[in-house]
Design a protein that fits this description.
The protein contains four helices and no strands. The protein has 105 residues and is mostly helical. It is globular, with a radius of gyration of 14 Å.
């Protein structure tokens, strides 16, 4: 139970970090909600997946990026400039999620 709550807490913190700039830019509520939910779910997948013996610190960024690819494809249809920041945030926040999970769980 403790692990599940810590995982959820890590996801909420990562989600807030990701959506604050989006709220500042006044993006629509669906984009903000999608990003927040992405980071609520991502830690559960990151912490419970093994990737071919990959280093623990690299796993979070890779998985977060892979989870964001479908959303990036949809966003690229209307706004190609937003894809690069999405890639950067996915890698950075995913890595931070993975590192925090390694040390906290």
């Amino acid at each position: 139970m403790r692990e599940m709550l810590l995982t959820l807490l890590i996801g909420v913190i990562a989600g807030i970090i990701d959506v604050l700039p989006m709220i500042k830019m006044k993006l629509d509520k669906y984009s903000v909600s999608s990003a927040f939910v992405h980071y609520i779910i991502a830690p559960f997948i990151i912490f419970n997946t093994e990737l071919f013996g990959m280093a623990w610190w690299l796993k979070g960024g890779i998985i977060s990026l892979l989870l964001a690819v479908p959303t990036m494809i949809l966003v690229a249809k209307d706004d190609k400039k937003s894809v690069v920041p999405m890639i950067i945030m996915s890698i950075i926040l995913g890595t931070l999620v993975g590192v925090s999970g390694f040390f906290m769980l």
